[in-house]
Amino acid sequence: MHPFLEAVARPTNACDKILVIIQMNGGNDGLNMVIPLDRYSELSAARSNILIPQASVLSLTGTTTTGLHPAMTGLQNLYNAGKVTIVQGVSYPNPNFSHFHAQDIWFTAANSGETLDTGWLGRELDVAYPGYPDGYPNTTDQDPPAIQIGGSLAMSLQGPSVNMGYNAPNPASLLNVVNASSGTVPVSDYGTELSFMRLMKDQSNAYTSRITGAYNAQATQSAMYATSGNSLSDQLKIVARLIGGGLKTPVYIVNHPDSFDTHVSQTVTGSTTTGTHANALSKLSVAISAFQNDITLMNKADKVTGMTFSEFGRRVASNASTGTDHGTAAPVIFFGAGVNGGVLGTSPVLPAAPTTSTQVPTQFDFRQLYASVMQNWLCLTATQSTSVLNGSFNTIGIFNTGGTPLPLTAIELRAGAEGHNARLDFNVNENEQYQKFIIERSDDASTFSESGSLRQSSDLSYDSYTYREDLVNALAMYYRIKAVTKQEGIAYSNIARIQNGSVSQRISVYPNPVQNFTLNIEFFVDVKSNIDLAIFTTGGQRLYYNQFSPKRKIRFMVPDIFESHALYVLKVTYDHEEIVEKIVFEY
Question: Would you say 351 and 522 are in contact if contact means Cβ atoms under 8 Å apart?
Fold first, then answer.
């Protein structure tokens, strides 16, 4: 069983809430789905060959900064009715770009580079369902803890000793159970035997009668489902009938039939509103809107919330094949009558001149979403959530569950130039849960590196902090605060920009002090000639030399020959210009 499904099932039996998860395999291009209208000029510079025309973007009630892909009119209507919450910039520190590893991270709630052999909520289910499957189903727990339709049984679906969920590889296989039908088989003696074996397997399943009874007790109410060619609609139609028929299963997972791995031909040349990604988003929108209509007509809407997820996003800049490559953060969509509605987070900050490696900045750790689902929808306590996630993660205001409104971000950052210093002021909600605050900076609002840190104040009620450092030798820099909880969880502030009005130089050298013997040099003008780089001691001895072809940004490593905290001179020569910078190495 899927790890997410494993753990929420038992604790939520008495909660009477249902979660439906839609998996979008391949890595979804969030910038093509949720379009940042207030960053449209930067978006145009980054991906002109796949850009959705601004006039075609679907507008959303209550916001002028965010729109939807034109293929998503069903989601637009739900959003405008207050039944969709969009969470911007969801990822985690040091994202992995392997499909399989990234999926495992989402499934297990592991840190990047960490491998766990249990699901992130499966760890809780092992305690909640002692001895499973022996003794189940019973008079108290008559229904499957969770049902998955679509997809194969991966390692992440395995419980501690057995598979702990009900899995149907596709809608037809689940309907075979409902109808006591073994599906299409060859017309032969082998086919006869295979048919009998399939039927016996399905009929012997301990949960078959409950699934069959629920499905047959509720007819489809909505006429909005796709009539053909949309397996996601077929899957959600079955889920709606099971919910409407009274099945108490608290979690369902369905799989989008299309791949979101759009390296090539994401759009159609000359018609960027169409193409493979548009088709996939259309199927998503049609299926969700039909499902929401169906459960509303069944009077079950107050019990059901859905969410989408994909293992990662895509990069800011498109590629030459009218596609996008593996990236970091992307939006997640929650839908249902129980969500607050609106947009959490801001439009991603995009640089004016992105490179092929420019990433969408992270605003929320995906485990914050998991914590919010567990605590604010599926009735788990904060202690249970912390135990399941191996750390404390701030919840965010996805659900309208009453109580004190949750802050949009845990850390609110303001930044500006103060003489020769960059000054950062930030306020912290729930200050007592943090152990330290790491200051991170970036020249492109995408790739951040640590530039300093502050420990938590000994006064636990203290919630305002100030940090100063020398202004970086660049026209503008972006900052954010990475807060580390006492359980090693992570929360991020908003991203703040500092304009350095005193800088008229043509290059930026960072980080300085240099870490891991890696330097970045960015040019604020077009470079026409080769670039010569040399590093000297203060006595004039040259220790390093290299030459690079003309480009706007250079990232390079130098030999491990420089002393820590010693002063060196970097000389950059290009286009008959010579620029000298003082640099220090730190390790």
Answer: no
d(CA 16, CA 303): 7
CB 266 within 8 A of CB 276: yes
424, 411 Cβ separation under 8 angstroms: no
Say yes or no: 415 and 535 in one domain. Answer: no
Tell me: cis bond preceding 511? Omega within 30 of 0 counts. yes
Q: Which amino acid is at 46?
A: A
Cβ neighbours of residue 140 closer than 8 Å, sequence gap 6 or more? none
Domain final residue pick, 328, 348, 368 = 348
Domain of residue 443, residue span: 411-499
Q: Are residues 478 and 580 in the same domain?
A: no
- The CATH number of whichever domain residue 426 belongs to comes to 2.60.40.10
Q: Give the pair of three-digit tokens for residue 151.
A: 């997809």
Regarding pTM above 0.90, the answer is: no
How long, in residues, is the chain?
587
State the virtual CA torsion across 554, 559, 562, 567 in degrees, nearest 10: -20
Q: What are the two backbone dihedrals, phi and then psi, of residue 45, each rounded to the nearest 5 degrees?
A: -70, -30
What torsion do the CA atoms of 418, 423, 426, 431 make, to the nearest 10 degrees? -130
Mean per-residue pLDDT of the chain: 82
Helical (H) or strand (E) element with 139: none
- 482-499 residue pLDDT tens: 888 776 666 778 778 887
Domain for residue 181, yes or no?
A: no
Pairwise CA distance, residues 368 & 430, whole Å:
15
| Inside any domain, residue 484 | yes
pLDDT, tens digit (0-9, with 9 covering 90-100), for 43-68? 999 999 999 999 999 999 888 999 99
